[in-house]
Amino acid sequence: MNYTEEQTGYMVEEYKRKPSKITVARLAKELEKTEKSIIGKLSREGVYLRSVYKTKTGETPVTKVELVSEIAGAFDIDPGVLAGLEKAPKAVLKILRRASTGIED
Known about the structure:
By secondary structure, the protein is an all-alpha fold. It contains five helices and no strands. It folds into two domains: 5-44; 64-101, no CATH class.
């Protein structure tokens, strides 16, 4: 699906003015394109802002494996040495990470 320079300029300006899924849907309808196509073009133009998932508490999600890896890195050991630690409660792993790296949630 090709876009004219005029369409591209219009899309970019509209999206910059109000970056939201509603704007993408409106642009798709106006330009008779799919939402995926609009998102792809805005991404190639470097203006599309992907929504970032947050947990219920507003934190960026982190897996238990990532927490164990950070803890192992703080002690300069291979994460494999800590095999099984990822089965601990996430709250405990966060406490260990904070104590070993100083990283707060």
